[in-house]
Write a structure and sequence with these properties.
The chain is an alpha/beta fold. The protein is built from 13 helices and eight strands. The chain folds into three domains: 106 residues, Rossmann fold (3-Layer(aba) Sandwich), CATH 3.40.50; 78 residues, no CATH class; 77 residues, no CATH class. 35% of the residues are buried. The two termini are 24 Å apart. A four-stranded parallel sheet has the order 2-1-5-8. It is 45% helix and 13% strand. The longest helix is centred in the middle third of the chain and has 20 residues.
Length: 313
């Protein structure tokens, strides 16, 4: 099962500085049905009460610290960093983290940063907890709860989280060139949909398997794989990938079925139907005309259907 960290206030715990929880997001119900959610509030974990005085990011001669908002003299930076270190030590199988927008502890980006005089300096900060989280584990997929209301961002987060989960599971046994190449073979069409240049670059990289140090090669590979998936796939990339996959059916389906599936893919390309429509047709055709290689492709089913992530993109 997928294991996700999540801000405790997002899942109903009244731990915000005001003593409230965040407004319930119905989507989190479907997430809870397919994933283990590890609720955590870093501010409460370091001993701050509920309710409490807000904290903020403060720029001190180019170094951003987490401090109290009234006097800017109490520094919580080190405590939040230790909270992140402890959290990751307890959850080595973590596959992603859903964080809180604008939070000086949990905001992933665009967090207010104040100067030493107490005035807003800029909005380019990152929460103290998440900054340490990503320093330790830079490939960990993270997203803010509010941004997950965007269907494409939501879908992309879960694509990355499930890929990262599979990668972590692969690490349980000794890595070999064969295991690395076999692992990537499942993700070729997923990468093609997201990033053609990365698709080619990964191919060139893995051509060196067996010739270079496997630990170095593995690190280069997973960095490139996760980077290739960082941005949501575009309609053009998804269309191109489905057309490539449809090519495996050209000798097995009837002329009428060819017209139907091609029209369905084109309807997606022009925005008439969501991605789930042509994907369901392709899945049906490959159920009738099995192809072991296509069956192995994560692109065909990258996450549980209960999440309904392809229904709105």
């Amino acid at each position: 099962m997928l294991k996700l960290g999540v801000g405790a206030c997002i899942v109903g715990s009244p731990v915000r500085y005001s003593g409230d929880a965040k407004r319930h997001n119905p989507f989190m119900d479907s997430v809870a049905s397919v994933a283990e959610l590890v609720a955590f509030c870093p501010e409460v974990s370091i001993g701050l009460g509920v309710p409490r005085e807000p904290i903020r990011l403060v720029d001190e001669e180019g170094q951003v610290r987490v401090k109290d908002s009234s006097t800017q003299t109490k520094d919580f930076t080190n405590k939040l960093q230790k909270a992140a270190q402890s959290f990751l030590q307890r959850n080595t199988d973590l596959s992603g983290y859903i964080l809180v927008k604008g939070s000086p502890s949990c905001g992933t980006e665009r967090v207010k940063v104040y100067n030493e005089n107490g005035n807003v300096s800029h909005h380019k900060g990152q929460g103290g907890f998440v900054a340490e989280l990503l320093r330790i584990e830079p490939l960990l997929p993270v997203e803010e709860d509010g941004r997950l209301n965007d269907a494409r961002i939501r879908e992309n987060f879960f694509v990355r989280a499930y890929v990262y989960r599979d990668w972590k599971e692969l690490q349980h046994d000794e890595m070999t060139a064969h295991r690395l190449i076999t692992f990537y073979s499942q993700y070729k069409y997923l990468v093609m949909a997201h990033d053609i240049p990365a698709y080619k670059e990964i191919g060139r990289l893995l051509a060196e398997a067996g010739k270079v140090d496997i630990a170095v090669l593995s690190a280069q590979f997973i960095n490139l794989l996760m980077l290739s998936l960082k941005n949501p796939a575009k309609r053009s990339g998804l269309t191109n990938t489905m057309q490539h996959i449809r090519g495996y059916l050209k000798r097995t389906i009837s002329s009428i079925e060819k017209v139907d599936v091609d029209r369905c893919i084109d309807d997606y390309r022009t925005g008439l139907v969501p991605l789930v429509v042509p994907m369901k047709m392709l899945q049906h055709l490959f159920n009738v005309h099995p192809n072991p290689y296509i069956r192995s492709q994560v692109f065909m089913s990258p996450y549980p259907e209960e999440l309904r992530l392809r229904n709105n993109i």
